[in-house]
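Pasting as-is:
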Amino acid sequence: MLQLPRSNPLYEQLAISRVILPDALKKLGSGGFTGYLGYSAPGVEAYLIFIKGALVSMLLLENQQRSNGFEALSSLFYQAARGSGVINLYRMTPDIALCTHALLHGEAVIQPQKVAATDLKALMTRIQTGLLTGTMLFTTPDRSAMAFYKQGSPIGFYHDTAHDITTTPVEIQRVAALPDATVELRIITVPDALLHHNFLETLNIDRLWQTAQNREPSVKPPSPASPPPSTTPPVSLEPIRHHPAAPSLPPDQLAEVTDDLQEIVKAYLGRAGAALVDSLLAKAGGPEALSDPTAFASLLKALAAQGAQLDPEAKLDEMLDLIRSEVAGRLAL
């Protein structure tokens, strides 16, 4: 498996047979999701990265072969149509999503090499003076850790036992100090160009899904008996829509999302921010408002306006992106 940050999970080990994948991708897009969807099955793994609802990159690995774009999505849909494998969904900020993209598709400034043979101070100076954006990855046979950079400045750290992106490199330094640790650096040379690309707009995912469904019957065992002729029109191979236009969540999941939103807002606006979430949800009619696009948009608008009054210096755009990702991810799968 590739080493990627696995912080802020929305779903882990969710059977893909429970998901209509093209519908889920559309909902992640329309909801403004930022983060990545990971897929794994024996011999296959895939990663789809979203930034503010745009599907900016895809990578599929099968039998040591890499595929991207159209080919990657076609293969993923074929796996999904077979009903094999599991899905993981992680939300993150747009900057961390860019750095995650660098791990999959970025230019290798430093190929994996022993930390003991690397001048880390010189490497960090190179990142700073070159205003580089990307990820420094440390690995051992048992551990992994990452440092994320945007235009030469560190924006977060992650290690394999963390539940979130951290602001301190203490554990990263511990992993780097292990005797068998290696380091590599991957960067994005033109990050702005990536933000203007969206596979959801350039690929016909409904057609790709239908093609995958058409292929799948050939690998299934034949039916024991053929049905008698019928004048009833054949069933469409279009994916069945199990979800309404504005899907709702069960009460326990709504409570979980509400708690997560409070934690997000509390991180940016303090305890007063968590209380503000409670107040705005109550005015909107309760947590069910999160499933209504109009009510949710109004809630975000009010949260931005009143949040600015609580703390004019808070990174409200980043906070709202995380909230959108949380809700979009929950409603998509």
